[in-house]
Amino acid sequence: xxxxxxxxxxxNPGTVNEMCLFEDFNFTVQKGEFxxxxxxxxxxxxxxxxxxCGSMEPDKGEILMNQKPITQVKEYQRLxxxxxxxxxxxLGTCPDMTILENLSMAEQKGKCFGLQRGTNKKRIPQYRxxxxxxxxxxxxxxxxxxxxxxxxxxQALSLLMSVMTPVEFLILDEHTAALxxxxxxxxxxxxxxxxxxxxxxxxxVTHNLRYAAQYGNRxxxxxxxxxxxDIKGEEKKRIKIEDILEKFNxxxxxxxx
Length: 257
Ligand SMILES: Nc1ncnc2c1ncn2[C@@H]1O[C@H](COP(=O)(O)OP(=O)(O)OP(=O)(O)O)[C@@H](O)[C@H]1O
Hints:
By secondary structure, the chain is of the alpha/beta class. The chain has helices at about 45-55, 75-80, 100-105, 125-130, 150-160, 180-195, 210-215, 235-240, 240-255, and strands spanning about 1-10, 20-30, 35-40, 60-65, 70, 80-85, 170-175, 200-205, 220-225, 225-230.
């Protein structure tokens, strides 16, 4: 379970650009939920993910993980339980290192690095097997530098790396946005498979309404730092792209766009 309780967040406080994004914002994700988050530009989706992961502190309020307060827990400590994949396939992997080195590094997340060898050759057969499951031919490219991979290959690798350690939560920040439609579909199917197989609790920010309708068991729409729509269960199963669009239009009319 992840919870943001009575969150207040101001950007540029005390300046002419001061902006209150969250004012008494509450958001709880129950264990096993796969929440798709949609919303207008600047509605606070990424900021919400940053608060969960600890990349940003709230001005007021509390963040809980499995009922325990983590507001003061540093990002690197929280990431022991959280895997995160970003929009930019270049983030989340190291371009100058090979696939093998990247996988070895991901497996060491949260552990102390010493002067031991960077890669464990004994793990190569398992790495090959994991990569083969992606169906992108990466199992034969273990010695290839990640920087030369395509965006889709790199995003698939990022996804795999984000769940190599036993994480409980997966945070996806528009992770298919930079990919062509076919590759995005492949990554989305892979994401869904990983979430189900590993029984992860997931929050996925997306601008793709088809993915928001098709995947996950809960759908949240954000607008101006608030959740203006929150559906789950049977209602979520029945939701269509047109219904989400209709709500978007309602919001746009309300704020005069
Ligand atoms: N570091 C920052 N400093 C100042 N303002 C910020 C900062 N980060 C975000 N904001 C502002 O907060 C608001 C919410 O931004 P955020 O990136 O969370 O929105 P978003 O819903 O993810 O948007 P998008 O869909 O465009 O990615 C925006 O108005 C943005 O300009």
